[in-house]
Specification:
The structure holds 3 protein chains of 3 kinds.
Chain A: H1 2-37, H2 50-57, H3 60-88, H4 96-117
Chain B: H1 33-64, H2 66-75, H3 79-103, H4 119-141
Helix pairs in contact in B: 1-2, 1-3, 3-4
Chain C: E1 7-14, E2 24-31, H1 38-49, E3 68-71, E4 74-77, E5 89-93, E6 100-102, E7 105-106, H2 109-117, H3 135-138, H4 145-151, H5 162-166, H6 168-172, H7 179-189, H8 197-205, H9 218-222, H10 229-249
Parallel strand pairs in C: 1-5
Antiparallel strand pairs in C: 1-2, 3-4, 3-5, 6-7
The chains are: A mainly alpha, B mainly alpha, C alpha+beta.
Chain lengths: 119, 147, 255
């Protein structure tokens, strides 16, 4: 497992870096409006009623942004959880934590692709 | 120094002639302010992972149809969701400030075709891009731009 | 000039491989002077109080890199750290993350092994080895001030190992090549005279990979020469990724 992780390390790091930069940039506005402002009533909820939300999301660019908004934070999160496990658990010796979190991130990313394609 | 490091940490390739004491880790692990900031930075990974799954949940509902979308949007006003999203906002700001402010300015490739800019300038450029993108994205989501 | 009669309590970690299982702490109460560095206090104890203490030091001017120790849990060069930074008590221990040979002396061989791995010398491609033959006529490889400036900062490392004592990944992942060695490997990768980038990049992606670094930035915080190893390691990650991506598209020459 350790050997497999070592091979995948560059691509994992790229996804992590994208999550750290692009993920953070996208998530800020999304959480601000969809996570906080609309539920708290600061922005009228019809701003994102089904028709408008679907229209925004279902074009090519919208799908791409949504995929980035889902998958990039997942990879950033997975990579950080693994490095925390190294810091607290005396090393991810057999790579088990890494395999676990990256598999979870990869599975969720696949579901995300299905989710944005069927919009 | 309070904790034992990994017993093989910085072990010599060949054992020396005398017995050595096992390596210790630098002390006050959680208590040292810099290390605490670093561990919290790593801990935002959990928040990011969950935030990703929340967006996935929303998009999945959007794909299902108007009813599923209305239900999932209504559920976002649950206090647990609000607390989580407040935590996400804090995490995102913390990650942005640390990553864009101190980490990325150091990572400019050297010796390539690109000029190496002053760290302050890079920081300013990335912060501006972050602010501009957040503003535009927020206005679009809030229905102020586009229809 | 009046002698300062200030007293300082110094706690020194002691380890005798013939007698002790683990290091223990010994306390000394010594008179100190305002302008002393921490190393002066250790030398005073060794000369006047307890000659059995073992510690390494040499130049006393932050160049040789041999007097690094943990001062109140933080890795420091003892010759560079003023005693006036500490009042009443100072705890002196050997560098963290290294096997302890005796008292304040650690085993550096693990570092030398990692250091060798990154080929810290100028590598020339075989096809250009004949360059070396007319070296006497050409003098040396020429290098412009701009080319020197790209890596000069990373060449200031004195191998004092403070970064290794500070690194949270080194503490937990023995294979990790670590800050100073990667910084020096990166220094040669940036050198206009060097042609070993592909070799070093594959080492950077191999066992002990640069990607193990979690950018805690501790190495740069403690570096006494402002080498900023964290910058080097993370630039090296980027370069190793670019090199990896190129390898996917273009076949490697002679690999």
């Amino acid at each position: 497992m350790k050997h497999l992780l070592l091979k995948l390390e560059p691509i994992i790091w790229l996804l992590f870096g994208a999550g750290l930069s692009v993920g953070t940039m996208l998530l800020t506005g999304f959480v601000l409006v969809v996570g906080l402002a609309i539920p708290m009533g600061l922005v009228p909820s019809d701003a994102l009623d089904y028709e408008r939300a679907h229209a925004l999301a279902s074009n090519g660019f919208g799908r791409l942004v949504l995929l980035g908004l889902i998958a990039l934070p997942l990879w950033k999160g997975a990579h950080h959880v693994r490095s925390l496990s190294v810091d607290f658990n005396g090393g991810d010796r057999d790579g088990a934590v890494g395999v676990l979190v990256y598999t979870a991130a990869a599975l969720c990313s696949l579901i995300a692709i299905v989710a944005v394609v069927r919009l | 120094m309070t904790r034992a490091a990994h017993p093989e940490a910085m072990a010599p390739p060949k054992k020396g002639p005398t017995r050595t004491a096992p390596p210790r880790m630098p002390g006050s692990w959680w208590g040292a302010p810099r290390i605490r900031t670093y561990l919290l930075f790593g801990a935002t990974g959990v928040v990011y992972f969950l935030a990703g799954t929340v967006v996935l949940h929303l998009v999945w509902a959007l794909g299902k149809g108007p009813d599923a979308w209305a239900t999932v949007m209504a559920s976002l006003s649950h206090p647990l969701y609000l607390v989580f999203h407040a935590l996400t906002l804090i995490s995102v700001l913390f990650v942005g400030i640390r990553a864009f402010g101190t980490m990325m300015p150091k990572m400019q490739p050297r010796g390539g075709p690109l000029p190496v800019l002053a760290p302050g300038l890079v920081r300013g450029l990335i912060y501006s891009a972050w602010a501009a993108l957040t503003l535009v994205f927020s206005l679009i989501l809030a229905g102020k731009i586009g229809s | 000039m009046a002698e300062s009669k200030k007293m300082l309590r110094v706690e020194i970690s002691r380890f005798d491989p013939d007698r002790d299982e683990v290091p223990k702490t010994q306390e000394y109460e010594i008179p100190v002077q305002d302008d002393w560095k921490v190393l002066d206090a250790i030398n005073y104890i060794k000369d006047e109080v307890d000659p059995s203490i073992s510690h390494r030091w040499s130049c006393r001017m932050a160049v040789c890199g041999s007097c690094g120790m943990m001062l109140n849990g933080e890795p420091k060069l003892t010759c560079k750290t003023p005693l006036s930074d500490y009042d009443e008590t100072i705890k002196i221990e050997p560098l963290a993350n290294f096997p302890i040979v005796r008292d304040l002396v650690v085993d550096m061989d693990g570092f030398m092994d990692k250091f060798r791995k990154v080929k810290p010398w100028i590598v020339r491609a075989k096809a250009r080895a004949e360059d070396m033959e007319d070296l006497n006529e050409k003098g040396t490889f020429s290098q412009s001030p701009d080319q020197l400036a790209t890596f000069k900062q990373f060449s200031m490392c004195i191998n004092c190992l403070l970064c290794y004592a500070a690194c949270p990944v080194i503490a937990n992942e023995p294979e990790f090549i670590g800050p100073a060695a990667i910084a020096l490997g990166h220094r040669y990768n940036l050198d206009s005279r060097d042609e070993g980038q592909a070799e070093r990049n594959s080492i950077f992606r191999g066992e002990g990979t640069v990607f193990s670094c979690s950018f805690a930035n501790e190495c740069s915080e403690v570096c006494p020469k402002n080498v900023d190893p964290a910058a080097a390691v993370n630039q090296a990650k980027l370069a190793a990724v670019v090199d990896w991506a190129k390898g996917l598209v273009l076949p490697r020459e002679g690999a």
